[in-house]
Amino acid sequence: MLDHLKKLWALGTIIITLFYSSFVAAHGNVPLETDVCVRNMAGSMIHLSTYQPQHDPQAEYCTEIPNEGETFWVLDLIDQALRNRPIDIKIVRGIGDSISETVASIYSTDHSDGIIKGEFNLDKGQYTLFVTGVGVPALHYEYPIQVQYKSFTDTFFTVTPYIIAFLLMALLTDKYLKRRQVQY
């Protein structure tokens, strides 16, 4: 009986691993066309990366920053034409129709290497990063940013595999115990 229960628990662990790993999404080493941190406007592309080395020195984030506090950001101007334009960067509190105050603003004219970088301190909540390539025509890019913010959808997809695995294990254990009772 103990050997059979070990097999059931091993099966449950495998099921949990399979369900959980299907929701994992990596940011690094993806083509630009499929990278969620790339914005494309009229053929001009930019890429945003954010880092919090005080929490995890190796991790790179884009629009979902796990901890509030000091955050370093790097904006890569992929298109050569953008490197010759002034770039206006603005971080505002809120997203969509609920945009309120400006948290930080940067105006960059010297970025011939295609990189604009900086740092900001953000509290928990939702923000929008606006990047504008000044000129004719003006190019507008937008990044919704969430700092230490969990939506109900994210929580649902995080918890669901564990609930399904637990219910499966409970069902299999119940069937096994009922079967054992019938045999005796």
Walk me through the structure.
The chain has 184 residues and is α+β, with helices and mostly antiparallel strands. Helices cover 28% and strands 34% of the residues. It has two helices and nine strands. The strands form two sheets. Strands 3-9-8-5-6 form a five-stranded mixed beta sheet, with no helix packed on it. A hairpin with an 8-residue loop joins β5 and β6 (102-108). The longest helix has 32 residues, at 152-183. Mean pLDDT is 81; it is low at 21-26.
Strand residue content: 25-35%
In the sheet with the most strands, the strands line up as: 3-9-8-5-6
Assembly type: single chain
Broad structural category: alpha+beta
Along the chain, the helix and strand elements come as HEEEEEEEEEH
How is the biggest beta sheet arranged?
5 strands, mixed
Q: Please estimate the helix content.
A: 25-40%
User: Whole-Å distance between the termini?
Assistant: 13 Å
Radius of gyration over C-alpha positions, nearest whole angstrom: 24 Å
Number of helices: 2
Average pLDDT for all residues: 81
Number of strands: 9
